[in-house]
Design a protein that fits this description.
alpha/beta; Rossmann fold; two-stranded parallel ribbon; 9 helices; NAD-dependent epimerase/dehydratase family protein; Epimerase_deHydtase; NAD(P)-bd_dom_sf
Length: 268
């Protein structure tokens, strides 16, 4: 299959390596040419800055024609100059013009910010929160593609992205709340299932290690592996657990790391 990965960053690089090894025709994009030097020979690099005016014809249209697009553009921080939504709107225009076959959009379970309890894809999100609104508008920008599969990723961990490194020496809240994390390898495995399905259909799915693990247990184990420490303040009772049942059932999917704790030793 012809696949274009828009956003050849930390996660995009790992996705590209695996899909190319599986025999897919891979194109990867970055905003600057210098970021595409020394690519593996199986990959074709394409300069694409979605925050600049695009030529919807010519080379870009040829690259995106009849391709499945994996949108790995990170939403970045919420501020008045954030161009995340407009970038995805430009991507949608490019795909429309090129007649791409569909898109897998890597979004975030941060869209459930402000909610408590067990949350799934049917929950009504709190659009009054700026971060939630940004993510929702980003998802909406790609909804009208012939196929739009939105994967809402929980906190990402993986190679050179060890959770213990980010909390070392800190004091965290909600020790008894669920930790909502997913390893990059499970994201890649999920993408392989999607590309291997007989018929891709639009849908919104959470990706999160499915077994319940508390934040205190997870981060104490994470920091212990790095010989550092983390502490916790009293639990306020506000807890949120992201459920991934819809993706598991739709794709008969088996997470490699059902417990986020089991994934920690694969983050170095």
């Amino acid at each position: 299959m012809k696949v274009v990965i828009v956003g050849y960053g930390w996660l995009g690089q790992q996705i590209a390596a695996k899909l190319a090894a599986n025999g897919h025709q891979l194109y990867v994009t970055r905003r600057a040419h210098d970021a595409l030097t020394h690519l593996p020979e199986q990959l074709t690099g394409v300069v694409l800055d979605l925050n600049q005016p695009l030529s919807l014809n010519g080379h870009l249209a040829d690259v995106f024609a009849d391709a499945l697009v994996i949108c790995a553009v990170p939403p970045g921080r919420q501020h008045k100059d954030n161009q995340y939504v407009s970038a995805l709107q430009n991507l949608a225009l490019l795909m429309d013009n090129a007649r791409s076959i569909g898109v897998v959009h890597l979004s975030s379970t941060g869209i459930y910010q402000g909610l408590a309890g067990e949350v799934d894809e049917t929950c009504e999100v709190n659009l009054a929160l700026p971060r939630v609104r940004l993510l929702a508008e980003g998802e909406r920008a790609l909804f009208k593609q012939p196929v739009c599969i939105t994967l809402r990723l929980s906190g990402l961990m993986g190679l050179d992205r060890h959770p213990g490194r980010f909390v070392a020496g800190k004091t965290l809240s909600e020790p008894n709340a669920a930790v909502n994390m997913v390893h990059a390898n499970d994201v890649i495995l999920a993408l392989e299932h999607i590309l291997g399905s007989d018929k891709m259909a639009s849908g919104v799915f959470n990706l999160c290690s499915p077994l319940m693990v508390t934040r205190q247990r997870f981060y104490q184990q994470a920091t212990s592996l790095l010989n550092t420490q983390v502490s916790f303040i009293a639990d306020s009772g506000i807890r949120r657990r992201v459920l991934a049942d819809r993706f598991i059932n739709q794709y008969n999917f088996d997470f490699k790391f059902k417990s986020a704790i089991d994934a920690l030793v694969h983050c170095s």
